[in-house]
Design goal:
Elements lengths: L9 E7 L4 H9 L7 E6 L7 H5 L9 E5 L8 H14 L3 E6 L3 E2 L2 H13 L4 E8 L10 E4 L8 E3 H7 L11 H11 L3 E11 L6 E3 L4 E3 L4 H17 L6 H21 L4 H17 L9
Helix pairs in contact: 7-8, 7-9, 8-9
């Protein structure tokens, strides 16, 4: 990949958990050479071979790589905050958040457009059009959205500082939605650069044509985490969310999972039990007193 000098400095943070080594290598090579530094945040157990299998094969990318991992699965929020602290201390202008399974089709264009709009004075969070997640109709090269997924999103360091970083009450699920809500509450916009594409899959999906539903087939513990986190998020932002937003959260993360479990997924009893437990724990979670500020 050709060497290009960019005006602004971009720090990437990639989270790993039991990755497919070959696929992860291929994905990293599509964007890492265009970063000023890449933090690889390894959530796999210490006995895994992630580092020994991946790191030597990334040495030719001409990218500064920092490996972080202590054998504990701390998910995504601490990884973002680690990158945020580094970005503040060492003068990185942007933070790119990446998942191991996400594949860029044109990261060069994405980086170029971010540079262009930042130079024009726009204070935006940037996201690509995510194939496999985004299903809305594209009508222009830039479309402002209300939400984003973590992977592929680029957040200016100053903006992340303004919202106080990632809330580690959401180590994985609902983290992106919580950040999007706080970003919009501060008056910033989320700009989807629709000509830039990221391919990303969620879970192990199976479809039912009769019910017009897709089941993600998450493990029971992940179903628990999703329900708990989104209920907490709903409560945290209830003072600000519109009624339609609240209904969307209940529909997407409580009612539809219930329907999927009952009609599409196996292991129904364990999944139902964990869904109910996630809802209960989300409702019982003690919100910080300053959560509305």
């Amino acid at each position: 990949m050709e060497n290009i000098i960019f005006r602004y400095r971009m720090l990437g943070v990639l989270t790993l958990f039991h990755p497919d080594v070959e696929q992860t290598l291929e994905n990293i090579r599509l964007y890492a050479p265009l970063l000023d530094r890449l933090i690889i945040w390894d959530n796999s157990p210490l006995e895994s071979q992630d580092k020994t299998q991946l790191l030597p094969r990334l040495s030719n990318l001409n990218t500064d790589i920092v490996w972080v991992g202590d054998g504990e699965n701390r998910c995504i929020a601490p990884a973002i905050n680690h990158a945020w602290q580094m970005a503040q201390q060492e003068g990185f202008d942007f933070i790119l958040i990446m998942d191991q399974d996400s594949r860029w089709t044109n990261f060069m264009e994405y980086r170029r457009l971010i540079e262009q709009h930042t130079g024009e004075g726009d204070q935006w969070v940037f996201t690509p059009y995510v194939e496999g997640c985004d299903q809305w109709t594209i009508s222009s090269d830039i479309q402002f959205t209300e939400l984003f997924i973590n992977s592929g999103t680029v957040i200016p360091t100053k903006l992340l500082t303004d919202i106080g970083g990632a809330d580690e009450a959401f180590p994985l699920d609902a983290l992106d939605h919580d950040m999007a809500f706080r970003i919009r509450q501060k008056g910033y916009q989320i700009a989807c650069l629709t000509t830039c594409r990221l391919v990303h899959s969620i879970g192990n999906p199976t479809k039912s044509e009769a019910l017009h539903l897709t089941a993600h087939n998450y493990p029971a513990m992940r179903i628990y985490s999703i329900a708990r986190s989104h209920i907490i998020n709903l409560r945290k932002h209830s003072h600000w969310l519109k009624r339609s937003d609240k209904w969307r959260i209940v529909r997407e993360y409580v009612l539809l999972p219930l329907v999927r479990i009952l009609f599409l997924e196996s292991g129904k009893w364990e999944r139902l039990k964990m869904l109910m437990k996630g809802i209960r724990d989300g409702l019982c979670y003690s919100l910080p007193k300053n959560h509305t500020t």
